Amino acid sequence: MSVIRVALVGLGATGQAIGSSMSRRMDCRIVGAADPRPELIGTDVGHVLGVGPLGVAVVGDTADLPDADVAIVATTSHVAQVADIAVPLLERSVNVVSICEELAYPWYSHPDVAARLDFAAKSNNVSVLGTGANPGMIMDTLPLLLSSLTQNVNSVVIRRQTDMSRYSAILSKFGLGLTPEEFAAATADGAVIGHVGFEQAIAALAGGLGWQLDKIIVDPVRPAFVTDSRRVGTHLALEPGTIAAVRHAARGMRGGRHMIDLEIVFGFFEDRDEIRPGDSCRIEGDEQTVEINAATGFESFLSTIAVAANAATAVVDARPGLLSMADLPVVAIASKGGRRRESTAR
User: Fold this and answer.
1) What sequence ranges are listed for the domain Dihydrodipicolinate reductase N-terminal (predicted)?
2) Among 197, 213, 199, CA closest to 258
3) Global pTM?
């Protein structure tokens, strides 16, 4: 079996965690890493990942990356910026997987960027995919798969309460750690925007179900509660009197009905809080209602790492073009390289 050559683009907290995961896989080998921070350039990426030397130095520009089978991009939530990184890699016949939320299903929200990425990928016989825990799996691909248990779906309702204490840079867009006054000002200035990816998750789920929605409504993000004690995460501490959780919701509408209803509470949670981590999904069908509840919730950070790592190896063997998670065979993702090992051995 040929080993998949992996390049890492972006070595923030999430990028490092994905890289650490990939370094432990027997079917993968990290051959390159890029990050513009001066303090990382020239450093052995293994030291950055905390896994020991790998003999691969971090470069400051993706143009300096060596040839690879797949690049994993963990830089930004915005697809236009990721496209500027992805297209030159695709033109070098490198498959691209990114945890950019807007890339998970960009045909609805960013059709021009989607067309640009699709053309670049197909022209060079490679694939490009946006994925992660959400969007990518929990609010789109997973309910789409569960919907096969009923013959006609009438509505989908998903509720998430997810712990964010492992994250770093992306926390700024949620406004965690701000006072209510600071939160209001930052929201008005556009610095706090909440979750990026609602449109993509709803459009992906509707597309898979064959629904033509009239519109997608994304509510403003708002505080859920303020902490009265200090809460410490991996990269950020929340002081008393600051916002410890925010609530964000969106709906897919058709004929005045809520066909898809999504809500997430993002926060740093403690056992004494009324709101605790957890996930629920209810699919209302004609003959039955399918409902699952994850009492402690899907751990968002770890789930994002796992989905990205598993999808990265699956993409290498996927059809060319811009893909969504629904385009990949379930077994190619779930087998964690095992399916590829079997097919290569035959």
Assistant:
1) 4-80
2) 213
3) 0.92
